[in-house]
Request: fold
Amino acid sequence: MANEVKTPTLEDAIASFNRGDYFGAAERFEVIGRDTEPELKTMIDAFNRIAAALHLRFERGGRQAAINLLSQAMLTLDDLRPEHAGLDIERLWNELQAYADEVRATPRTEHTGLKHRTRLFLEKRRAPKINPKTNRKD
Reply:
């Protein structure tokens, strides 16, 4: 049928996330999370929170809501470290921790202006990514 909607895959959602399309990724994670097996649902729900947090931060300038969502996701991902479903959860968790600390260090009162937009631009370049687990020795 011409009007069939393709159900997103986890790979589609991760690709959107890693491209910086956090709103699209959150929607994809939400759809996937509804019908996924229990061993993946927890991880996908955490990814959805991360995508929502980054969308709030970069598109709306939110600070505390982003911190709260990132913290919730980190608590969930902590139990899935170091690897889950072929993904490098340890690396993601470490990147989330560093990023959340960076957001916590921003001024609570800075919501507008060139300095704020510049800060968000630089933060977006350092935003966490979801990566496959590699067998490299660090």
Remarks:
- The beta strands are 83-84, 87-88.
